[in-house]
Amino acid sequence: xxxxxxxxxxxxxxxxxxxxxxxxxxxxxxxxxxxxxxxxxxxxxxxxxxxxxxxxxxxxxxxxxxxxxxxxxxxxxxxxxxxxxx
Length: 86
Fold this sequence. Notes:
Layout (H helix, E strand, L loop, with lengths): L1 E3 L13 E3 L5 H11 L3 H5 L10 E5 L2 E3 L11 E6 L5
Parallel strand pairs: 1-5
Antiparallel strand pairs: 1-2, 3-4, 3-5
């Protein structure tokens, strides 16, 4: 499936805005991304295996925070990184 990569994480993907990854759950997809692009998963998931607070993942047009969410039949996952500042 296609995974949309936010600009701050594109240094891991050679500046590609979308990449292919596989997995039947969100955590498996992130594991596959990390095999292909070492270090990217640590920017998305914390040491306790939870989605980092500033990361947002959209699946089927809805915000997802559950890493066990099934991805069967899905063709796109969108990863976004919230930016703050002022």
